[in-house]
């Protein structure tokens, strides 16, 4: 097809096609129900301090069978290898190398030997290879005392009282930040569910490309492209629905506030939109039905846990005849 361009000075006509988009008038923005977990400040502070103690933990050799929390040092002989060994350690109770292994070393003493493999109920032909293990040493955890020296090492404060106060302030700040996010996320999810719409493709594509450019990757893969587009789609929908709320409520932003928020990286119109959306969010939260609730307890039963455990890979001990080493093993305390 040959397209003839108009001659300079001659009259001509042309057609343009536009696709119009209008965000639906938002509904369901009043009385959104939001449940937030209460803050058990005392419990949170104690847990934080205990985590500090764990960071300063030390281990001392003990002459007894291993127990929960102990560090067990082992020597492993990989399947099919009778000469090279690998040394490693596991802390009982943390399932560091897979489900079931902690049980195999609980109650063990130095020189205790056993063989085990990862299993998932496969047939004999498909079962993974057997590995041999020997316990080298058992160590028990020694936590630092809760005293002024501990407070100074942990946070550079003079005493334990100052440490608790500092931890309390940190816990409160983190909780407040998390609650803000939780409430805003609940608002967005609720109004988007009440107002389904598909945003303009060009807005999604532009934002998606912006995300990809920020990654600085050459030739991003399909997984990255899909994730960027999904994130962009959600962000554009959030932006448009909040802007629609601001327009419906006739929210305005003063020039003084725009001047205060001005930055070289952002245009005045962008600042105005951002502040309007923030104001719309604050309005919806003011009208929301916000209540506290206790954290829900898991409904998972012991049977559910057993079923789940059986469906996953876990360590199992094998009989002596399955090994090539032969001979008696050193002791392990039977529970």
Observed structural traits:
six-stranded antiparallel sheet, alpha+beta, Trigger factor, domain 2, two-stranded parallel sheet, single chain, 42% helix, Chitinase A, domain 3, 335 residues, 9 helices
The helix/strand order is EHEEEHEEHHHHHHEHE
- Please summarize the sheet with the most strands: 6 strands, antiparallel
The CATH topology of one domain corresponds to Trigger factor, domain 2
Give the class from helix and strand content and strand pairing: alpha+beta
List the helices and strands and how they pair.
Elements (H helix, E strand, L loop, with lengths): L32 E4 L4 H15 L2 E4 L9 E7 L8 E6 L9 H5 L7 E7 L11 E12 L5 H8 L4 H35 L6 H15 L6 H27 L6 H7 L6 H20 L1 E4 L9 H9 L3 E4 L18
Parallel strand pairs: 1-7
Antiparallel strand pairs: 2-6, 3-4, 3-6, 5-6, 5-8
Can you walk me through this structure?
It is a single chain. With 335 residues, this protein is of the alpha+beta class. It contains nine helices and eight strands. Among the domains are: 58-142 and 310-322, Chitinase A, domain 3 (Roll), CATH 3.10.50.30; 174-292, Orthogonal Bundle (Trigger factor, domain 2). The chain has helices at 41-55, 101-105, 148-155, 160-194, 201-215, 222-248, 255-261, 268-287, 302-310; strands at 33-36, 58-61, 71-77, 86-91, 113-119, 131-142, 289-292, 314-317. The strands form two sheets. Strands 2, 3, 4, 5, 6 and 8 form a six-stranded antiparallel beta sheet that branches. Strands 1-7 form a two-stranded parallel ribbon. Helix 5 (201-215) packs across helix 6. The longest helix has 35 residues, at 160-194.
């Amino acid at each position: 097809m040959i397209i003839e361009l108009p001659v300079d000075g001659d009259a001509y006509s042309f057609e343009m096609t536009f696709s119009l988009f209008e965000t639906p008038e938002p509904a369901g923005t009043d009385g959104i129900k939001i449940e937030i977990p209460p803050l058990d400040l005392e419990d949170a502070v104690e847990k934080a301090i205990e985590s500090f103690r764990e960071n300063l933990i030390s281990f001392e050799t003990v002459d007894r069978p291993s127990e929960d929390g102990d560090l067990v040092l082992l020597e492993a002989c990989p399947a099919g290898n009778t000469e090279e060994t690998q040394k490693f350690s596991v802390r009982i109770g943390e399932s560091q190398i897979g489900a079931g292994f902690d049980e195999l070393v609980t109650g063990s003493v130095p020189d205790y030997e056993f063989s085990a493999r990862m299993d998932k109920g496969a047939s004999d032909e498909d079962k993974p290879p057997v590995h041999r293990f020997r316990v080298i040493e058992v160590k028990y955890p020694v936590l630092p005392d809760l005293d002024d020296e501990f407070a100074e090492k942990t946070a550079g404060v003079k005493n334990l009282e100052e440490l608790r106060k500092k931890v309390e302030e940190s816990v409160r700040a983190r909780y407040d930040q998390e609650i803000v996010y939780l409430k805003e996320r609940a608002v967005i999810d609720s109004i988007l569910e009440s107002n389904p719409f598909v945003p303009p493709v060009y807005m999604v594509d532009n934002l998606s490309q912006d995300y990809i450019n920020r990654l600085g990757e050459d030739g991003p893969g399909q997984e990255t492209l899909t994730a960027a587009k999904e994130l962009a789609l959600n962000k554009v929908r959030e932006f448009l629905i909040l802007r629609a709320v601001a327009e419906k409520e006739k929210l305005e932003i003063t020039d003084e506030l725009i001047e205060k928020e001005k930055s070289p990286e952002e245009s005045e119109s962008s600042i105005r939109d951002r502040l309007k959306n923030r104001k719309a969010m604050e309005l919806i939260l003011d009208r929301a039905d916000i209540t506290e609730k206790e954290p829900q307890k898991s409904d998972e039963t012991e049977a559910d846990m057993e079923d789940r455990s059986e469906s996953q890979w876990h360590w199992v001990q094998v009989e002596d005849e399955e090994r090539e080493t032969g001979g008696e093993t050193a002791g392990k305390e039977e529970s």
